[in-house]
Sequence to fold (230 residues):
Amino acid sequence: MLYSRYIKRILDILFSLLFILLLSPVYIVLSFCVLVFHGTPIIFVQQRVGYKERIFNMYKYRSMTDLRDKNGELLPNNLRITKLGKFLRKTSLDELPELFNILKGDMSFVGPRPLLTRYLPYYELDERKRHQLRPGLTGLSQVKGRNKITWREKFKYDIEYVENISILLDIKIFLLTIMTVLTSRGVADHGEVKTDEFGDYLLYEGKKFRPLDKEREYEKFIENNGTKNE
Fold:
């Protein structure tokens, strides 16, 4: 309890500052490359669900262009991702701006990965345990298979982490993450994920057909546990 409440946050601040300073030349080079190949904005900002289901803006390097068809609609993702974008994703360098999320307190180095806000109404109560901690730059599900494992398995590992959090487990996950990134294990050759889309998982589990029930359940959960907004 002492570690998860206080020590973990102190370590997050110290190490995020250290890594931001050490990696400043890398930030400059990557920012220039993204600017040249993708244009502005350099940083992709997307709302994600964080600690206690608060919503925050997560930062990543842009890996796709804004190419559109003749009707002004964005082209499919596989047509907009560039060679640079594939490289950034495969090496996880697109995640480096998340160090600033860690410094701000939105995230931690280790924890369940933050997911999109639109999935909130569909979580089971046990799956929401993943929001009892700050989301992580990496997590137990990432080192157990990254994007090769199913969503059911991801949630299982997220809950396992929440229930067994410790400094030794964090160190183990962090070291295994370095090995995973260096070997690009669990990422498709083109830099995209292999896991089924979350929507497909919801359909398979029969959850997507009960949105009203899930929204009522979620509203009750929020009423008992506070607001999701910062």
Notes: The beta strands are 43-49, 55-61, 108-110, 136-138. The chain has one domain: 2-225. The longest helix spans residues 2-22.
